[in-house]
Specification:
With 244 residues, the protein is mostly helical. The chain has two domains: 46 residues; 195 residues, Biosynthetic peptidoglycan transglycosylase-like (Penicillin binding protein transpeptidase fold, Orthogonal Bundle). Helix content is 60%, strand content 2%. It is built from eleven helices and two strands, in the order H-H-E-H-H-H-H-H-E-H-H-H-H. The chain has a two-stranded parallel ribbon with strand order 1-2. The longest helix is centred in the N-terminal third of the chain and has 40 residues.
């Protein structure tokens, strides 16, 4: 019995090893496909009305999701400038990742959880379209090269337009500035005043804690700060004024 059992065990192992190798190969191919897919899809986002991963998740899980897509030409220039000033002052001059701001953010933080700033609009587009929320070294490692690719493939106008239409602007599934503007002020994003635009920009990045419809003292202070920066911004939005 011992002699007959040994060949059986060897035979089982011999059959099992190829299966394990095939499983790892399939997993490896699947992971590689997931890594490559955003780079394939990015050129297609020069057109259309893309959805973020959070928007898709809310739709799949039956949660409320409101988004009215508006081209950049139908969004208040004051809002576009306020968002650039608030989120990424060097948006027109970097190539997707602002390494100078990133160095400063890392220097001011004890670890990744404490790090604030340094994330460009293009990086946020990469995260919103293809990655997940939350802070992690893995997500940042995937986000950096993807942001550089997005900046290479898409125009600055298109990147900002996508961001304004996929960012979350309200606490109950309001995505995009049009939905955020209608909720906060009862008017279209193209009709916002400079102070209203600054208030809406100040909602980012946390529409759950900041409400432009009922702004507290902190939100009003931020809005005033952005209005002042807008006046001194110079050519901060020069790249989006040009024809794409």
């Amino acid at each position: 019995m011992a002699r007959s059992g040994k060949p059986l065990s060897l035979s089982y192992r011999a059959l099992r090893l190829p299966r394990i190798r095939r499983s790892f190969r399939v997993i490896g191919i699947a992971v590689l496909a997931l890594l490559v897919l955003p780079y394939v899809l990015t050129p297609l986002y020069a057109f259309g009305r893309p959805y973020s991963t959070v928007m898709i998740w809310r739709l799949v899980t039956g949660q409320r999701m409101q988004r009215i897509y508006e081209p950049l030409s139908r969004i208040s220039p004051s809002l576009a400038l306020s968002v650039i000033v608030a989120e990424d002052g060097r948006f027109c001059s970097h190539y997707g990742v602002d390494f100078r701001e990133l160095r400063d953010a890392i220097a001011d933080a004890d670890d990744l959880q404490d790090m604030r700033g340094g994330s460009t609009i293009t990086q946020q587009v990469a995260k919103n379209l293809f990655l997940w929320q939350g802070r992690s070294y893995l997500r940042k490692a995937l986000e950096f090269p993807l942001a550089l690719w997005i900046d290479l493939v898409l125009s600055k106008r298109r990147i900002l337009e996508i961001y304004l239409n996929v960012a979350e602007w309200g606490p109950n599934g309001e995505f995009g500035v049009e939905a955020g503007s209608r909720r906060a002020f009862g008017k279209s994003a193209r009709d916002l005043s400079r102070s209203q635009a600054a208030l809406l920009a100040a909602v980012l990045p946390n529409p759950y804690m900041r409400d432009a419809r009922s702004p507290d003292a902190t939100l009003r202070r931020l809005a005033r700060l952005y209005v002042g920066r807008d006046a001194r911004a110079g050519y901060a939005d020069d790249c989006i004024r040009r024809t794409p």
